[in-house]
Amino acid sequence: MAQFNDLLLPHGRTELCNSVLPGLLDCIADIAKSLRQSQHVSLAGTTNIFGDGQLNVDIAAENLLRAALAKCPSVLTASSEEEPIERSARDGETAENVSAGSEKYTVAFDPLDGSSIIAPNWTVGTIIGIWDGSSAIHQQPSEKQIASILGVYGPRTTAIVALKVPGGKPQCLEIGIGESGQDHEIIRSDVKLADAPFKTRYFAPANLRAAAESPAYMRLITQYVEKKYTLRYSGGLVPDVVHALVKGHGVYLSPVTGASEAKLRRLYELFPVALIVECAGGRAIDPSNGEDILSRPLENCDERAGLICGTAEEVEIVKKALLGQ
Amino acid sequence: MAQFNDLLLPHGRTELCNSVLPGLLDCIADIAKSLRQSQHVSLAGTTNIFGDGQLNVDIAAENLLRAALAKCPSVLTASSEEEPIERSARDGETAENVSAGSEKYTVAFDPLDGSSIIAPNWTVGTIIGIWDGSSAIHQQPSEKQIASILGVYGPRTTAIVALKVPGGKPQCLEIGIGESGQDHEIIRSDVKLADAPFKTRYFAPANLRAAAESPAYMRLITQYVEKKYTLRYSGGLVPDVVHALVKGHGVYLSPVTGASEAKLRRLYELFPVALIVECAGGRAIDPSNGEDILSRPLENCDERAGLICGTAEEVEIVKKALLGQ
Fold first, then answer.
1. Residues A36 and A175 placed together within one structural domain of the fold
2. Which of A148, A322, B248, B304 is the most buried if burial means most Cβ atoms within 10 Å?
3. At residue B24, what are phi and psi to the nearest 5 degrees?
4. How far is A31 from chain B (nearest CA, A)?
5. Are residue B257 and residue B113 in the same domain, yes or no?
6. Whether residue A29 has pLDDT greater than 60
């Protein structure tokens, strides 16, 4: 496809346009191929640091992404949900001794999100955040995370890409991923969460069991039913968020209650998703305090939180319902 | 893969084993390929007889299935959700003047179920029922529908196949569909909805808006939340049913209320799904009267009904809750 040169990025982003973004999209094509050939989805016999059972396909996706990033000289640092420690993108290097050009990036990724729905062959995804500089820790997410990608593995392979490069206009694109780099194409150059009125209103209530302990959450669910919202909830963060982006409407809720802890990783899941939702004109907030997901820097790689995101109007309704704000 | 000879079918089913089933599985591989290459999912500018907008991918799947069936001499009659009239599987023939062997089949199919979730790239499916004889109308479904297939188009391509051939043991298998016929393989030869206790209980509430008018449905939803069932609802009948089959537990509910009409086609959706669920040890009933989906013959091709299916114990709970039986 057209290199990312077409995307009206500010000068000085040659590596981002010609190496990092194309390399990651090609890697999404490779992960799709690997998934297509993995009829035997099994536990790999290991657990990641969070105690989740790792699937053989998780490990394959992790290895493909690490290899793709190692080929991008401007990517100094990489970390993943499977190994949440920032380290050099190339073995034997330290972030400090790399003689890189003027562009320096950190990439944080969840190689394969949606483990629980891989066996039944539901759509799953890859989540990637790209940061300016050699670390994401203690950096202001709203300024330093300059791009993010959701890879979507379903009947076809697609990707949603958000770009918010300083000096440039925020953009959100949908890309059709081909078998090889030449075949990728921009399907929509302006992914937008639309304004009211909506033909159909969608809701995706994650962690619905929390409604048993949260009367506010239960009331909200009842209200969606009474107002005839349409339910779509796959349990995969990528397909659930992408559903709203493609339909132009939707709200995703993963509240946090006393009895149910926050599960979504800020660095590997929430930040990239929030950037995409914001670049599409929506909002992404923390249900514990109503603040924007991208407003608070990270202290360490495995911090977690809840999420409310989607159309700005719907997020506001949820905020009022759950926080009384 | 091994021809279906291995499947312990009674004698006299050579065409079913060597032509119909392999031909349909190859066709599922072809539909998967067509979907993978259809980055531009658009309305084809036509509507089917039900007034649904037809997508270009619907038409491609319909054409691939019609072509595959035309190559099976034992398939006399075909009809599809897109064109719900029984007619000869080969143009220019009538079902009566075909000089077929001793095996005679009718095939009814929904070429691509889940139109609303194709654009966001969620898993969708094909639904196929295979009947003994030259028509499905006025036939006893529990006896005459002898096989059914759910094709599943997700990150990989899979199929669930149920066989209930007179004289043989009912079977339910999961098949990994390769790029070509040689690559198909049996992933699980005994797909089973398990017995209690369950690690996790799943529910998939279709037509949830109906709960606004049905206090019984709303109470049932509240009860699932209170009992901490896990919600998984994609809105695609194939992925929703396959989720339960792969996890070994689940209940799918599409109730019918005064304000919301029955939407699922008996011939193209309910009968094939019911056969698969029953062959996996589960139950599939009509929510309007509690009767087994497969108990009542078809009067015409476009009859519709609701559905409750899944683990027998869960179906019983829903029946009591909605019908008081």
1. yes
2. A148
3. -70, -35
4. 10
5. no
6. yes
Domain span at B57:
4-188
For position A258, what pLDDT does the model report? 78
> A257 versus B136: which is more confidently predicted?
B136
The whole-angstrom separation of Cα A170 and Cα A282 is 12
Residue A81 lies in a domain: yes
Chain A hits for B214, CB-CB cut-off 8 Å, are none
Which chain A residue lies closest to B232 (C-alpha atoms)? A234
Let me know whether B24 and B105 are in one domain.
yes
Q: CB distance from B67 to chain A under 8 Å?
A: no
Percent over 70 (pLDDT), chain A:
91
Instruction: Say if the Cβ atoms of A234 and B122 lie within 8 Å.
Output: yes
Classify residue A138: in a domain, yes or no: yes
CATH number of domain containing B216: 3.40.190.80
Rounded mean pLDDT of B263-276? 97
**pLDDT value at residue A43:** 55
Q: Give A-chain residues touching B58 at CB under 8 angstroms.
A: none
DSSP string of B167-209, one letter each residue: TS--EEEEEE--SSGGG-EEEES----PPSP-SS-EEEESSGG
Listing DSSP states for A15-46 in one string gives: HIIIIIHHHHHHHHHHHHHHHHT--S--EEEE
B248 shares a domain with B139: no
The domain boundary, picked from B163, B188, B213, lies at B188
What's the number of domains chain A is made of?
2
Using the beta-carbon criterion (under 8 Å), do B122 and A38 form an inter-chain contact?
no
CB contacts of B234 in chain A (<8 Å) are 122, 232-234
Judged by a CB distance cut-off of 8 A, whether residue A33 touches chain B is no
Residues B251 and B149 in one domain: no
**One domain, residues B184 and B263:** no
pLDDT tens readout for residues A155-179: 999 999 999 999 999 999 999 999 8
pLDDT grade, residue B98 (50/70/90)? low
To the nearest 10°, the Cα dihedral for B265, B266, B269, B270?
Answer: 130
Query: At which residue do the structure tokens 């190859």 appear?
Result: B26
Residue in B40, B120, B123 closest to A247 by CB: B120
Q: Mean of the pLDDT values across residues B42-62? A: 70
Which residues of A are less than 8 Å from B156 in CB distance?
35-39, 121
Q: In chain A, what residues touch B157 (CB-CB under 8 Å)?
A: 36
Residue A246 contacts by C-beta under 8 Å, 6 or more apart in sequence?
A174, A191, B119, B120, B121
Phi, psi of B294 (to 5 degrees): -85, 5
Contact list, B239 vs chain A (CB under 8 Å) = 120-122
- CA of B160: which chain A residue's CA is closest? A120
User: Which residues 182-241 of A are in CB contact (within 8 Å) with B?
Assistant: 185, 187, 205, 208-209, 211-212, 218, 221-222, 225-226, 228-235, 239
- Please give the structure tokens belonging to residue B168: 């043989």
| Interface touch B123/A124, C-beta < 8 Å | no
Tokens 């994650």 locate to: A206
| B187/A122 touch (CB, cutoff 8 Å), yes or no | no
